[in-house]
Amino acid sequence: MSSEFSRRDFLRYSGATGAAAFIAATLSACSGGPASTGSVGAGSNKDLITAVIGYGNDQSWDPTQTASAFAMAGINHIYEGLLDTDPITREPYPALATALPSDLNATSWKFTLRDGAKWHDGQPVTADDVVFTFERILGPDNVLTGNFFKSWLQEVKKVDDKTVELVFKFPFPDAAPRLTIAKIMPKHVFSQAGAWDQAKGGKTVGSGPYKQVAHNPKSNTSFEAFDGYNGPRPAAVKKMNWLTIVDAAARVAKISGGSAEAQIADNIPYANVEQLKQQGLTVEGGKGMNHMFLMFNTGTKPFDDIRVRQALHYAIDKQKMIDVALKGHGTASSSFLNEGHPDHKRASVVYDYDPEKAKALLKEAGVTDLTINLMAVNVSWIADCLPTIASSWEAIGVKTTLEPQDTAALFAKMDQFQDYQAVAAASNPNQFGMDADLILHYNYVPGGLWMKYAHWDGTKDAEKLFAMMDEAGKETDEAKKTGLIHKYLDFVAEQAILYPVVHNELMTAWDPKKISGIRAQPYPGINLLQAKRT
User: Do 268 and 300 belong to one domain?
Assistant: First the structure.
């Protein structure tokens, strides 16, 4: 099979502009199977970290075409970018490259590759591998990572075997942290016929500190330290075994008790936080862009009317949702960006709980006796939030039916462009990065599937937004750029096409007596590059 990335592949494996932004990034799969028993009794093995990941490991492992939470976390241990970023601060540091760019406002950056960098099969890393990777990312068939590069990156050229040049369309200082998305892949491996399909299925050959040694979909993925690694963040333990357990109760059980098999688990349910703390575990949350959003079908009346979309947001009792469903681990959205983001500012329209305003907007729009079928993914925390939406809408006279369902099933319907009214789902672009331009391009991009799902692509309002985003992306003056970002964030808030209801914390638990060097992430997955067994 050629490297062409089909729409069916997109829905199955990827996500920044379509189904997998949620399928992969939020839970990666709703159907994680039983955990491997391969590391039973491993709790006392100081050479092994056993982790429990609350997302499936059976989505794509192709770094250029995945938003899978499990795969992306694993990829960060297996592959390197020219630059990589700290998992928490997101500050860039040289990885395969030897230095950070000296002039962030230059229109081309040259990078020299690290001496002695090797692939896990022993072959040397070369400039040809870098060019090969970026040609795939910038290619016409790339519907995922390409959205984060194509607006500003013109081409990547080979200077010599150890040097490459990135040529920009205009100065783009945010490119430095964004280069971590572009994990460099070996040309001699992945240029072979059928190799991209193998990558989707779990084949990995990287240059990073860990190499994959076993991959069992719906069960576990295991890693070993790569002896040939000579980069900045070497492996801190000899072996890792990551179990995929989507079922919350089974995941919590793996890390509970004195004889717990695992030392760390992510995606901890809010209801189990205190229980685990009482057992002596550290449980911390990461606040970021993880959110539940509502998306409306603007091709179906009355959702083509901005007043109706706004009314339905004003009607939701978000504090009740945070108190009851999220156990206090959430914040009502006051912008598309989460509070705490460097570019956050309260939007021109903030959907504070105001049922009377909601009723007035519906009346102004001439809408009466509205009945809504709200389709939603059946992720536990999303499902917990749905009753609050239903009761809030019923309170303003909107009859509401809830239809939670398997994630893949829901987006299969969306892909067929079946008629629908509204969808509640979740996403978290912080997997890819932090800057506002990247976050908006996760959902709002010309030709993107999210925009097609909302029937908003090609409208005058959509074109206006994309022009505003382009203008901000080209601005190099920081103050002016921030102003332009706030301008388009205001517009996104007003339009309420695909917009957050609440931002929530993601909880990670670990045993401090058995593992150190852990920091809770504000996006799905874990990073163990600096973790050690104690």
Answer: no
